[in-house]
Amino acid sequence: MTKKYILKPGKHQFAPGSAAVHDNDNLTDKEARWYLKAYPHIRALFTQIPGRSIKTTQEKKREVAK
To answer: Mean pLDDT, consecutive 10-residue segments, the chain of 66 residues?
Structure first.
C-alpha cells in the first residue's frame, strides 16, 4: 500500500507542546488526515499532500510577482 501523506525526513512535532515523535514509520494516512484537520500549520512538514501542492517560498514569490 502506498502512503498518500509523506513526511519530510526526521521526527516531527504536530501538536503544540507535544514531543517530536512522528515520522513515516509510525504515521498512518488516517492519522495524518486527522492531524492536518486539527493542526493545519503542519502542512509544511509533509512533502506531498494529495489534492494540494506545497509551494516553496520561491514559488509563492513568483505568484505574487505576476
So the answer is: 86 92 93 92 84 56 73
